[in-house]
Amino acid sequence: MAITGSRTSHGQVVDEIxxxxxxxxxxxxxxxxxxxxxxxxxxVSRTVLREAMKTLAAKGLVVAKARIGTRVTDxxxxxxxxxxxxxxxxxxxxxxxxxxxxxEIRLAFEPAAAALAAExxxxxxxxxxxxxxxxxxxxxxxxxxxxxxxxxxxxxxANASGNPFMRTLGSLIKAxxxxxxxxxxxxxxLRRSTDVKTTxxxxxxxIEKRDPAAARAAMExxxxxxxxxxxxxxxxxxx
Length: 239
Description:
239 residues, Arc Repressor Mutant, subunit A, Four Helix Bundle (Hemerythrin (Met), subunit A), two-stranded antiparallel ribbon
């Protein structure tokens, strides 16, 4: 199938090759097919293909070697904070260990972001966070819309922390939340949306009271509850 439009071409080539690497079609240590073969496969110019390879190299997935070709790098070099790399993992299917690792890194950063927000958030930040938390209780949410509402809350909190490094974790938070919700085998009901709303409002209330310790604890609870739900869903789907 031909891919039209240089920008679209670049994105689709990156997506397809990246996915093929993560899913194991191109295993770690293997040499990718040559430019001519890949250009024919995707029906794009070699210029578009080279730019796509530069993007994949920036994500740590491949490295070009003179007279050898483009090799798939070891997993330790993959940028796991990259949104595309994380999304490709979920598309290919993740292990329970991978899922739990995501929650571990969230526990390392997001409670700290909540504590910072309790110190630095503006009055408008607090109003926005309360509105986003209230929206989590909407009984009409589907699994997908609840995931996006949850994401909006956590991204707003990262911004409210006032720390630019926290904001750069957005791709990690997005992949963790959306991926975990995709694994969920439990439909959204009033009880679940109410529970999610209540636990997130506890974070907001701590921020409004300028209580960093309470904000940190409330965020830890949110992440741990989400982890336990994701673990249960994973177990039910994988026996």
